[in-house]
Design a protein that fits this description.
The protein is of the alpha/beta class. It has two domains: about 45-140 and about 265-335, Bordetella uptake gene, domain 1 (D-Maltodextrin-Binding Protein, domain 2); about 140-255, D-Maltodextrin-Binding Protein, domain 2 (3-Layer(aba) Sandwich). About 45% of the residues lie in helices and about 20% in strands. It has 13 helices and ten strands. It has helices at about 1-10, 15-25, 35-40, 60-75, 90-95, 110-120, 155-165, 180-190, 200-210, 220-230, 275-290, 295-300, 310-335; strands at about 50, 80-85, 105-110, 130-145, 170, 195-200, 215-220, 235-240, 265-270, 305. Strands 1, 2, 3, 4, 5, 6, 7, 8, 9 and 10 form a ten-stranded mixed sheet that branches. α6 packs across α13 (about 310-335). The longest helix has 22 residues, at about 310-335.
């Protein structure tokens, strides 16, 4: 750009047409292309901020950081994670919806994209404020009970719960959390009644579950597998479509009498609607490769996460399907925000 301005200044000073043409040839054709075209070809031109609507730690951190690390290798600019927790993810979503710097994206989640539109009467953002980039990963919910609960598997637990309607309790990280969704979905599918005890985060809920003040819970694999391995809780079913390599002896919910049942937390990349289409296309193509890179797969598999990496159109369809599914569960369970 500075060289182009110099050429134009020379023209104003009386340079001959011949000299101008020589200067143009020296500059190269690209110097006279429209600015927008050059920007599209060069993107990204600075670091990309990957906003995560949750506090550091847990599956969201692993998915975001593994994706960011791989993208930093292929995009020619660093991609860094910026945690912006609060208001069930709405603070981060609202901020990114308004971003127009062409270098900001956000981690979409089952809670922000499929739940919040139905539990909040008014959101500070709309789905049309974003463009789906790619579904990054799915993390299965694991159904666990305290060891004192006399049930070795899901069938026994359902029978036990039906024999004590309303007397058993399950905990979650809060109203509208993935844990509540997972258990309410199981309740709706199996026709059992249990009390929900919401907490402000997975940590305090786990404290009460481990002490026996709660009977059961549904928790993302990363947070609960260490406690399963140590025998502090018993896993009676996985919400995944197939058994987990980390827990090969634990059958899925579907295997235990509920065909087609699947409950996974999921994470995907969303961009502001202002992101130019060529930039989106490039970002989507690189993101699809990033989540399936060997190092990324190693990190995700260690968290019992399944790498996906689909197209923007496929991710958009997935969001629509998930919204339709959870809208029914939310209405039946009368889930409200904290």
């Amino acid at each position: 750009m500075h060289t182009t301005h110099a050429a134009m200044a020379a023209l104003d000073g009386g340079f001959s047409r011949r000299r101008l043409l020589s200067a143009g040839a020296a500059l190269g054709t690209s110097a006279f292309l429209p600015a927008a075209s050059r920007a599209q070809g060069q993107w990204p031109t600075k670091s990309i901020r990957f906003v995560v609507p949750f506090a550091p730690g847990g599956s969201s951190e692993i998915v975001a950081r593994s994706t960011a690390a791989e993208l930093s290798k292929t995009l020619g600019q660093s991609v860094y994670v910026d945690n912006k927790p609060g208001a069930a993810g709405n603070i981060a979503m609202s901020e990114v919806a308004r971003a127009d710097d062409q270098h900001t994206v956000v981690l979409g989640h089952i809670g922000t994209l499929a739940v919040n539109p139905y539990i909040f009467s008014k959101l500070p953002w709309e789905l049309k404020d974003f463009k789906p980039v790619s579904l990054l990963a799915k993390v299965p919910s694991l159904y666990v009970v305290h060891p004192d609960v006399p049930a070795k598997n899901l069938r026994e637990f359902i029978a036990y719960a039906k024999s004590k309607p309303g007397r058993l309790s399950y905990g979650s990280a809060g109203n509208g959390s993935a844990g509540q969704l997972a258990f309410e979905y199981l309740k709706m599918t199996s026709d059992v009644f249990m009390l929900h005890v919401p907490y402000r985060g997975t940590g305090p809920m786990l404290t009460d579950l481990l002490s026996g003040r709660l009977d059961a819970s549904a928790i993302g694999a990363a947070a609960i597998i260490p406690f399963i391995k140590s025998g502090k809780v018993r896993c009676i079913a996985t919400g995944s479509a197939k058994r987990l390599p980390l827990l090969p002896d634990v059958p899925t919910v579907a295997e235990q009498g509920y065909p087609g049942f699947e409950m996974t937390q999921w994470y995907g990349m969303m961009a502001p609607a202002s992101l130019q289409q060529p930039h989106l296309d490039k970002l989507a193509a690189e993101t699809m490769k990033a989540v399936k890179a060997p190092e990324s797969l190693r990190r995700l598999n260690g968290d019992a996460a399944e790498a996906i990496g689909d197209t923007p159109a496929q991710f958009a369809q997935f969001i629509a399907t998930e919204q339709e599914r959870w809208k029914k569960v939310i209405a039946r369970a009368q889930i409200k925000p904290d």
